[in-house]
Amino acid sequence: MEVGFLGTGRMGKVMAANLLKAGHRLRAWDKSPEPLHELKQGGADIATSAADAFQGDAVISMLPNDQALREVFIEGDLLNHARPPTVSLDCVDVLVAAHAAYNIPYVAATVFGRPDVAAAAKLSIMAAGDSAVIDRVQPLFDAMGQKTYRVGLEPRHANIAKIAGNLMVASAIEAIAEAAALLRKYRMSAPDVLDVIITSLFNVPVYQGYGRAIGHRQYVPPGFDLVLGMKDVGLALKAGEQANVPLPFASVLRDAFIDAIANGDADKDWSAIARVAARKAGLED
Length: 285
Fold this sequence. Notes:
Layout: E1 2-6, H1 10-21, E2 25-29, H2 34-41, E3 45-46, H3 50-53, E4 58-61, H4 66-75, E5 86-89, H5 93-101, E6 106-112, H6 115-119, E7 123-129, H7 131-144, E8 145-152, H8 156-185, H9 190-201, H10 205-216, H11 226-242, H12 248-262, H13 274-280
Helix pairs in contact: 8-9, 8-10, 8-11, 8-13, 9-10, 11-12
C-alpha cells in the first residue's frame, strides 16, 4: 500500500520503519528532520509538508496530542488536500466530523507498547470504526503489531480503550511507587523485595518493567514521557466527567504528576512519579 505517515517521534519512527520492512511505500512528514533522515535511508519518501504526505491509500498519524492534531488537520485545513484515504489517528473526537465532511473514511487505532515493543512490531492495536474500512488497512496494522483488537464501531471507542488502559498502567505505577517507598522506609531493598512480590503476584510486563525502574530509581531515558502521562490522566478525568463516572484515583494521579513536574521531573519517564511518593515519605528521592 501507499501510506502517508505523520509524526515520527520515538514511537512513530519505528512503526514507520516496520511498514517499510513489510514492503509498503511510505511518505513521511514531521516537524523535526532528524528521524526523517533515518526513514529516508530505509526507503521512505520525505514529504515537504503534512499536506504532501496526505495522499495514497492511507494516512497514519502518530502526532502526540490534540493540539498537534488540531494544528495539522483542522487549522491547517489538511483534509481539503486529501484524496479519500483511510486515516488512522491517535486522537479522534475532534476529527470525526471533519473527515465526514470531506467523505473520507476514518478509523481510530490506538496502541499499547513502548518504543522497544513498537520496534519489534509487537504492538497491541485497538481499532474502532467501520469494519470494512478496518479490513482495508489491516495489512498496515499487521506490519506494526502482533494483534489487532476491534473494540467498537464508533472511532472514539479506540481512544476510550486507550485512556482506560493508560489509567490502569498509571495506577499500577503509583501502587509500585508507594510500595517501594514503604520498603525503603523500613530499610529494606526495594529492588529485591519488589522483584519477589511482582514475581509471586503480578508477573506481567507492566509490573516487571516499572518494578525494575522504580526499584532501581531509573527514570531516564524516558520510554513514555511524564508530561504525556499527565495528559492521559487528564483525558481520563475529562472522559469520566462527560459520562458521570467518578474516577477518584485519577485525581490522585493528576496531583502526583503535577507534583513531579513542579519538582523538575517533566523530562523523565512517567514512572518518575515514584519520586513524589518517596519525597512524601521523607526519603531523598
